[in-house]
C-alpha cells in the first residue's frame, strides 16, 4: 500500500507516504489513500500520528496535469474535489490525537498544506529542503486550506507576503518565519523528536480551533485593522500590476475569511481557488514555469563530462560575471584581460579565479568563453590565441550578443568545437543562457555546453545561428516599436506605463537608455551594410540618430530618453514631449499595448519558421527569462495560444493594415491551431 500504516507498541502510528511515481502529489490516488488513512486512524485506538515520506521529497504539491485541465465547464467538479481534500485534512487535525509532520524533504504547496493541518511541524535541516506555498508563482492560490491556516497562524501582515510571492523557505528561515516549530539535524532525531512531542502533548488543539480565535491582526472594530485594510490595495498593485489575479484572490481570501468562522473561510478559499485554476493566467504560468521549464532543464546529456578548468577572455562586466558564477560552481577559472590590473579588477579577489594577462595561463582549459569588446577582428584574434593553448578537444565559445556564430567559428581550426554561450546581464542574477549552434557545431559540443550550463545552475535554451539569435533579435523589435510610436507622436509616458502595465519587466525607452542608443545605431548601421533588406523602420532610427546627435546617447552618457539627476531618481526628459508628441497621434492605449506585445510574438513565430527556434519551450522560457516578456502570458508563443491563434491573426491583420506590414502574420500562423 503506497501509504504505509505502522502502529508501534506505544500506539503511535507512522504514516509513510509512498505514492506510485517519483514523488507524492495531490491527485485522485492521493485522495483515496489519505481518505482511507484518516478513516483508519479515526477507528483505531492510537496515541498519535507521525506523517512522513518514503520519497526524496516530503510531498511535491498539486498534480499540475490535473490542475491545468480545470476549465470553467468542469469547475464545480473540481470544487467538490478540493472540498473533499480539505475535509480529510480537517478530520486529521480534529482526531483529538497529536499529529506531527516529520518533514524529511521539501514540502511545497499541497505538501505544506498537509503539514499545516498537523499540530507540529518538524523539519530536517538539509540544504536541499524548501518549505512553503509557491502556488502564486503558477497563478494559483493554496486551495487546500493553505491561505486560511497561514493567515490564522501568522496574521495577514506576515502571511500575505509569503503567500502572494509564493516564497519557498529553507528550514532555518521557515523556523524564523514561524511556519514550522522545530528544525533537527538528523533523520533519527526527526522521528525521536516527533515521538517525544506526541507523548508530551496527548490532546493538542490547532491555534484556529481555540475558543474565540480569529486572524490575529484583523479584528472587528480595531482601528489598526482598518489601517491595514486601507494600505492593502497599494501593496497589492505593487505585487500584481493589475495582470496577476492570484495575489488579488489571495488577499480577498485572507480578508473575507478573517471575519467568518474557520470552516466558512475554507469555503471562500475553495471558491477563489477554482476561479484561478479555471482561468487563463494559471494555465499560461503552469505551461511556462512548469512544463516548458522542465523541458529545457531536462535536456538529455550524453557526455557526463564536467568542466574542470575554464578560461574567460575579457574581464569586463560580462566576463567577470561568467568567472564568478563558474568559480562558485567549483570550476577552476582563469580570467584574462589585456592588463593584469584589468583582470584583477574583474576577478575581484574571488576564490577560484586566477587573473592574468597571459595566454599561457590558459593551458589545460577544457572550455574557453570569449567576452571581449563586440568587435569581429578582436574576437578572431583572442579566440585564435586562446584556442592554441587550451586542450585539443576543448569547447570554444563566444558570448557575443550580435555577431553570427558561424562566422566567428572561422577563428579556430576546428569549427565543430565552436559554439555561442550568450549570457545575460547581470550574470549572477539572470538565470538564462542562450546556447547558439553554429552551422558546423557538433552534437558533442552542444551536449558539453548544456552540461556546463547545468553545472553552473543556469537554465539553457538552444537556438540556431541568426543575427541577434532569438533573444536579442526579438527584444530588439520591442524597443524599436516603442521608438517608432514615439516618432509617430505617442506620449513617452504612455508607452512606458502601458509596457509595464502589460507585464513587461522594463519599459522600452528605459531599456534603450541602458543598452545605449549609440550601440543600437552601430548595430543597425552594421546590419544595413551587411543586408539592407533586414531593417525596415527608418523613422525609429532617425529619431535615435537625432537623440545621439543631441548628446543623449543613453544612461552611461548621463542622458537619454530619461534624465539621470545625481543622487535622484531618473525621469523622462521633458523635452521629449515638446519635440515629438502630437495631440492627434491617434494610437489608442490598447493599440500601444498590442503593438508592443504582438511585435515580439510575431518575431518569435518568424524565428520558429526560420528554424532559429526549434521548440515552443525554448521560445517561452527564453522570452521570460532572457528579456522579461510578461510572465503572466507564459511567454511569446503561449501569449498567442491564450489569445487564441485565430483571434491573434485577425488582430495582427488589423495592426498590419493600420501600422505596417511588420504585423502581417506569417502563413504558418494562419494555418495553426495552437503552439
Ligand atoms: P566590457 O566592455 O565591459 O568588457 C570587455 C573587456 O574585454 C574589457 O575588460 C577589455 O579590457 C577586455 N578586452 C579587450 N581586448 C582584450 C584582449 N585582447 N584580451 C583580453 N581582454 C580584452 O564588455 P561587456 O559588456 O562585458 O561585453 C563583452 C561581450 O559580451 C561583448 O561581445 C558583448 O556583446 C557581450 N554581451 C554583453 C551583454 C551586456 O549586457 N553588456 C550581454 C550579453 C553579451
Automatic annotation (TrEMBL):
InterPro entries: 3-OHacyl-CoA_DH_NAD-bd (IPR006176), 3HC_DH_C (IPR006108), 6-PGluconate_DH-like_C_sf (IPR008927), ClpP/crotonase-like_dom_sf (IPR029045), Enoyl-CoA_hydra/iso (IPR001753), FA_oxidation_alpha_subunit (IPR050136), NAD(P)-bd_dom_sf (IPR036291). In the central section; belongs to the 3-hydroxyacyl-CoA dehydrogenase family. Pathway: Lipid metabolism; fatty acid beta-oxidation. Keywords: Fatty acid metabolism, Lipid degradation, Lipid metabolism, Lyase, Multifunctional enzyme, NAD, Oxidoreductase. This is 3-hydroxyacyl-CoA dehydrogenase NAD-binding domain-containing protein. The lineage of its organism: Bacteria, Bacillati, Actinomycetota, Actinomycetes, Pseudonocardiales. It catalyses: a (3S)-3-hydroxyacyl-CoA + NAD(+) = a 3-oxoacyl-CoA + NADH + H(+). It comes from the Bacteria. Residues 351-465 form the 3-hydroxyacyl-CoA dehydrogenase NAD binding domain.
Amino acid at each position: 500500500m503506497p501509504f504505509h500504516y505502522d502502529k508501534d507498541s506505544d500506539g503511535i502510528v507512522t504514516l509513510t507516504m509512498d505514492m506510485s511515481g517519483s514523488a507524492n502529489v495531490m491527485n485522485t490516488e492521493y485522495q483515496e489513500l489519505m481518505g482511507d488513512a484518516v478513516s483508519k486512524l479515526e477507528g483505531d485506538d492510537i496515541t498519535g500520528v507521525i506523517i512522513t515520506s518514503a520519497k526524496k521529497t516530503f510531498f511535491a504539491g498539486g498534480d499540475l496535469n490535473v490542475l491545468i485541465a480545470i476549465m470553467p465547464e468542469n469547475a464545480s467538479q473540481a470544487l467538490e474535489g478540493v472540498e473533499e481534500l480539505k475535509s480529510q485534512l480537517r478530520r486529521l487535525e480534529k482526531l483529538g490525537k497529536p499529529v506531527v509532520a516529520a518533514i524529511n524533504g521539501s514540502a511545497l504547496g499541497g505538501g505544506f498544506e498537509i503539514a499545516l493541518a498537523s499540530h507540529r511541524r518538524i523539519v530536517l535541516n538539509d540544504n536541499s529542503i524548501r518549505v512553503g506555498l509557491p502556488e502564486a508563482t503558477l497563478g494559483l492560490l493554496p486551495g487546500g486550506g493553505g491561505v486560511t491556516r497561514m493567515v490564522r497562524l501568522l496574521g495577514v501582515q506576515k502571511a500575505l507576503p509569503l503567500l502572494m510571492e509564493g516564497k519557498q523557505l529553507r528550514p532555518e528561515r521557515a523556523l524564523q518565519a514561524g511556519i514550522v516549530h522545530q528544525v533537527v539535524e538528523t533523520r533519527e532525531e526527526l522521528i525521536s523528536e516527533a515521538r517525544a512531542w506526541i507523548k508530551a502533548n496527548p490532546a493538542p488543539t490547532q491555534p484556529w480551533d481555540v475558543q474565540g480565535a480569529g486572524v490575529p491582526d484583523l479584528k472587528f472594530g480595531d482601528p489598526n485593522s482598518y489601517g491595514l485594510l486601507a494600505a492593502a490595495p497599494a501593496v497589492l498593485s505593487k505585487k500584481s500590476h493589475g495582470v496577476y489575479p492570484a495575489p488579488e484572490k489571495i488577499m480577498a481570501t485572507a480578508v473575507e475569511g478573517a471575519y467568518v468562522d474557520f470552516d466558512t473561510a475554507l469555503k471562500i478559499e475553495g471558491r477563489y481557488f477554482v476561479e484561478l485554476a479555471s482561468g487563463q493566467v494559471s494555465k499560461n504560468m503552469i505551461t511556462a514555469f512548469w512544463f516548458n521549464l522542465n523541458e529545457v532543464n531536462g535536456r538529455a546529456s550524453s557526455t557526463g563530462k564536467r568542466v574542470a578548468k575554464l578560461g574567460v577572455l575579457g574581464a569586463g562586466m560580462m566576463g567577470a560575471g561568467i568567472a564568478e558564477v563558474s568559480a562558485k560552481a567549483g570550476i577552476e577559472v582563469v580570467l584574462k584581460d589585456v592588463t593584469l590590473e584589468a583582470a584583477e579588477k574583474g576577478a575581484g579577489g574571488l576564490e577560484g579565479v586566477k587573473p592574468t594577462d597571459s595566454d599561457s595561463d590558459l593551458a589545460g582549459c577544457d572550455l574557453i568563453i570569449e567576452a571581449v569588446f563586440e568587435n569581429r577582428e578582436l574576437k578572431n584574434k583572442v579566440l585564435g590565441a586562446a584556442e592554441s593553448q587550451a586542450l585539443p578537444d576543448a569547447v570554444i565559445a563566444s558570448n557575443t550578443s550580435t555577431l553570427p556564430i558561424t562566422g566567428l567559428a572561422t577563428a579556430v581550426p576546428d569549427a565543430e568545437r565552436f559554439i555561442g554561450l550568450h549570457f545575460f546581464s547581470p550574470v549572477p542574477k539572470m538565470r538564462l543562457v542562450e546556447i547558439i549552434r553554429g552551422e558546423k557545431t557538433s552534437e558533442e559540443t552542444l551536449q558539453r555546453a548544456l552540461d556546463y550550463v547545468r553545472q553552473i545552475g543556469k537554465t539553457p535554451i538552444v537556438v540556431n545561428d541568426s543575427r541577434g539569435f532569438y533573444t536579442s533579435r526579438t527584444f530588439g523589435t520591442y524597443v524599436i516599436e516603442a521608438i517608432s510610436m514615439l516618432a509617430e507622436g505617442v506620449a513617452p509616458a504612455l508607452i512606458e506605463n502601458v509596457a509595464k502595465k502589460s507585464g513587461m519587466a522594463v519599459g522600452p525607452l528605459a531599456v534603450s537608455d541602458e543598452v545605449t542608443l549609440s550601440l543600437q545605431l552601430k548595430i543597425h548601421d552594421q546590419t544595413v551594410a551587411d543586408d539592407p533588406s533586414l531593417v525596415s523602420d527608418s523613422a525609429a532610427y532617425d529619431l535615435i540618430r537625432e537623440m545621439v546627435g543631441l548628446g543623449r546617447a543613453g544612461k552611461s552618457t548621463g542622458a537619454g530618453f530619461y534624465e539621470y539627476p545625481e543622487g535622484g531618481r531618473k525621469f523622462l526628459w521633458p523635452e521629449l514631449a515638446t519635440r515629438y508628441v502630437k495631440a492627434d497621434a491617434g494610437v489608442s492605449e490598447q493599440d500601444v499595448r498590442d503593438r508592443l506585445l504582438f511585435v515580439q510574438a510575431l518575431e518569435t513565430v518568424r524565428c520558429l519558421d526560420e528554424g532559429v527556434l526549434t521548440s515552443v519551450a525554448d521560445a517561452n522560457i527564453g522570452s521570460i527569462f532572457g528579456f522579461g516578456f510578461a510572465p503572466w502570458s507564459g511567454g511569446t508563443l503561449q501569449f498567442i495560444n491564450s489569445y487564441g491563434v485565430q483571434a491573434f491573426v485577425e488582430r495582427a491583420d488589423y495592426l498590419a493594415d493600420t501600422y505596417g506590414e511588420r504585423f502581417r502574420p506569417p502563413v504558418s500562423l494562419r494555418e495553426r491551431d495552437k503552439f
